[in-house]
Amino acid sequence: MLRLELSGISKQYPAVRANDKVSLRVKPGEIHAVLGENGAGKSTMMKIIYGAVQPDEGQVRWNGQPVSVKSPAEARTLGISMVYQHFSLFDTLTAAENVWLGLDKAFSLAEVTARIGEVAHTYGLDVDALRPVHTLSVGEKQRVEIVRALMTKPQLLILDEPTSVLTPQAVDKLFVTLRQLSDGGCSILYISHKLDEIRALCHQCTVLRGGKVTGEVDPRAESNASLSRLMIGAEPPQLQHKATQAGAVVMAVKGLTLPQQDQFGVDLKDIAFDVRAGEIVGVAGVSGNGQQELMAALSGEDPRAPAG
Questions:
Q1: DSSP state of 4
Q2: Angle between helices 138-150 and 109-122 (to 10 degrees)
Q3: Which residues touch 257 (CB under 8 Å, ≥6 apart)?
Q4: What's the rounded Cα separation, in Å, for the pair 70 and 72?
């Protein structure tokens, strides 16, 4: 019996048909990728499964039975949990208090704190339940979100772009946890556009393009190029590296120092770099290490930077 089955699901918004008669089949214990470019309809499909969006047509079957999931609370009651790409945690509260907010209030905070420790130990998730969220790294915040989802003992866990803000080391840790969940019978829907990760982790893959399903494949038997063809409907462009000569400096940043604008932001300390004509400059770093503050200062969104 399938854990989850979508048949002919469609969702129309005023300007776009986000899902067009899409189908999806997920087995118990399967790590199932949903692959597609931005705007392909992945998030809408997940929100329909999680009850955050209602489909215009089609049927959802859960453990063989037709269901109409009207809300995320109803989805959690069925055994469906979701971790969104953008975390929904209160910075001023502890990890335990954040988890407690999303649970049945029949449990005390002390009971929830103890249960967090048990779940974290079982699945190798390093979570300090008593730490305020604003002191946690991005990877630690994600582990809090996953623990919160696992507290309801889900049969299906939905992860939306879970590695988009993680270091490679944190990704490796996450994959260990997901394989352990899969071995225990929990189905996982893994939304991503990172082909190498999908081929390494997932048992099955449904590909979306323009709101329609363009393929259902075993990603372990596919190449990056074949998955790209299903995603974009054409051969992936060949990238050619060629030597270039950078031109004159068009922007110079020297000694840019700004205190954090809010209590959970990051100070900028003596930032200096040049950008030359015809040059592509990357700003690297794990999310939350000052990229947003730097862009706000450069663009004028944060007007506190000294003139010049």
A1: E
A2: 110
A3: 267, 268, 269, 270, 271
A4: 7
What the block records as the tokens of 93 is: 């509260």
- Which one, of 30, 29, 24, 46, lies nearest residue 216 by Cα? 24
pLDDT of 85 > 90? The answer is no
What burial letters (b/e) apply to 149-187, b meaning 16+ CB within 10 Å? bbbbebbbbbbbbbbebbeeebbebbbebbeebbeeebb
The band of 49, judged by pLDDT with boundaries at 50, 70 and 90, is very high
Rg over alpha carbons for the chain, rounded to the nearest Å, is 22
Q: Tell me how far apart the alpha carbons of residues 194 and 198 are, in angstroms, rounded to a whole number.
A: 6
Q: Which residues of 227-241 are buried (b: 16+ CB within 10 A; e: fewer)?
A: bbbbbeeeeeeeeee
The per-residue pLDDT for 46 is 92
- Tell me the per-residue pLDDT of 114-127, one tens digit each, with 9 for 90 and over: 999 888 888 888 88
Tell me how far apart the alpha carbons of residues 113 and 129 are, in angstroms, rounded to a whole number. Answer: 6
**Residue 24 Cα distances to 3, 55, 60, 108, 228, angstroms:** 11, 14, 9, 38, 19
Which two three-digit tokens encode residue 244?
């270039």
> Which residue carries 């989802």 as its tokens?
149
pLDDT digits (tens, 9 = 90+) for 210-236: 999 999 999 999 999 899 999 988 877
Two tokens at 215?
A: 């393929």
Which pair of tokens denotes residue 275?
Answer: 């950008």
How many Cβ atoms from other residues are within 10 Å of residue 195's Cβ? 21
Q: Which two tokens stand for residue 236?
A: 């992936």
